[in-house]
Amino acid sequence: MTPHQRLELALGILAELPTALEVLSDDGGSVTIELAGHDNEMLHALTQRSRVRLGLGLRLRMRTPEGRGYDVDMSVSELFFHSAGVAAVHLTVERVRRFNGNRATPRARVDDLAFVGVLYSSVPHDDPEFDVRMVDVSPDGMAFITDRRLAIGDLLSVMATIDRKLIRMRARVLHVADAHYGRNRVGCEVTSIQGTERAQLALKAALEEADGSAHQRGGLPMAS
Length: 224
Fold this sequence. Notes:
Layout: H1 3-13, E1 19-25, E2 30-38, E3 42-48, E4 57-63, E5 68-83, E6 86-100, E7 108-109, E8 113-120, E9 129-137, E10 141-146, E11 155-162, E12 165-178, E13 184-193, H2 195-207
Antiparallel strand pairs: 1-2, 1-4, 2-3, 3-6, 4-5, 5-6, 7-9, 8-9, 8-11, 9-10, 10-13, 11-12, 12-13
């Protein structure tokens, strides 16, 4: 698709402009952008200057309780001074994906400890490294149980021993839900993993697929 076609597709999904949206940042956390309009190829928006840079990837996630919806991936193509602390940005729509509530790849059910390090968080952490209990995992996503507070958009490093092999991943928090005994179930997308470890998890997930509805899975990303 051309940039114009991707823009037209995104405009068909977005609310009527102008509108304020909360989007995930590839640098971690979320950013509020005020979409004001568009030209033939790019969206025009205002946002906090300290939270954006040229080339930064942003993602708008739109989901129903059943896990259906869209992802609109954008990048900051042009950046201008607007006022103190505020930048005017032009955003290129890189990709639009539809999600129908079904997982694109299976998850394997697991019940093992993993070691998590917080790379970026909007929530203060006295100790940025802690153990969690893994619930399920695949090359594209995972869920774990923890008593720590995490927020959507947090960036994590994860070290897990699965089938007696150490696997290192980086992940982004996409959903946080209440679990038993005051703990939290945290759903993440895997943003980085080595090829051999990806193949290992893909095989395990295919052989040991975990069940669960989109609601039970916490609204994790589902691709059509």
